Every structure is written in structure tokens, then in C-alpha cells.
Amino acid sequence: MSADFQQLWSLWQNALDGMAQPWVIGLVLALTTLLLEDVAIAAGVAVATHGALSWEWAFAAVAGGIALGDLGLYGLGLAANRVPGLRRRYIEGRDLAASQVLRQQLPGAVLLARVVPGLRLLTYTVCGFLRMPWWSFVAWVLLAVALWTAGLFWFSSALGAVIAEHLNVPIALAVAFPVTALALCFPLFRWFRRARLKAAS
Fold it and tell me: Which of 23, 59, 164, 170 is the most exposed place for a label (fewest CB within 10 A)?
């Protein structure tokens, strides 16, 4: 293992030892989802693999934080009915002609928005603005978040184990890599596509 990796690993262990209380780690994970969801998922898998937090609590903290953020978007759309500034920023200019389809296909819309980058903000705020049935929305969001988080936990853990075995890096560091790399792929893809369109014009 290189000296840089060894130093990074030491910093990681010291950080975990310094916040050894499980509730502190869980709270940090949940709050991190509100800023950087993919980083929170990667960190959740890492702390569970490291043993600083059980898999169940790591999953609950990350999934709970993500779900609260998603429900907050519904609340943002709901508030846009009364706050003109929010309506101008998040609702006006959106194509609401498909609202009837959204009403009929709420489960599919919620699940699709969870996995397609950039679609969640639009879909969930419009759901709130149109006052979609609250409890139905909550149920589908919880299901979507549970499936999404569990899938990424499994993906990161399984691929991370392979990386750790073949590259001789600490397992807790290796399991954080797949989700982080996946998160970076989407901005890079969008940048590459914009660059190609600009070059073609």
C-alpha cells in the first residue's frame, strides 16, 4: 500500500474513532444526504464495512435522510402555491399539461424520478404543487428510496470487495469508490454531451 493511501486510511480511522457514538455517525450520514446524496451512500457503506455502525443503522440513516429530502421537495412545491417567489423559480415555465398523466401514473413517476438524474426536483415539486395525495406520495417515495439505497449499498459493497481484493486497498475505502465513481459519471457525461453539441454547432 502506498504512503498516500496509508495516510488517508489513518485519517479515516481517526475520524471514525473521534465520532465513535453510533447516533453521531447516523446523524452525520442523514444530514449529508441533504447535501451530497451519493457521498452519504458511499460513506454509509464504508462505516458499516468498517464496523463503526451496523448495516441496519447505516441503511436507516442514509435512507431516512434521502426520504426526508424527497418529502421536502413535495413541501417546496406545496409552498409554491402560496409563495410567488417559489412558484416563479420552481413551477412557472414547467409543462404542467401532463399533470393528468402524473396523477394517473404517480407510482411510476416517483420511481422513475428516483433513478433518472435531474428528474426528481421537477417531479416531486410538481407533485406538491398539484397537491397529489400525500400518503400515497409518501408510500411510493419510501419504497423508491428503500430500493434505490439497498441497490447502491449492495452494488458498492460487492464491487468494493473485488477492488479491495485485487488492488490491496482497505475494504472500507474500496467500498466507497464504486458509488463515488458512478456519481461522477453523470456530470462528466453531461459535460461531454454539451461539448459535442457546442462543437457541432
Answer: 23
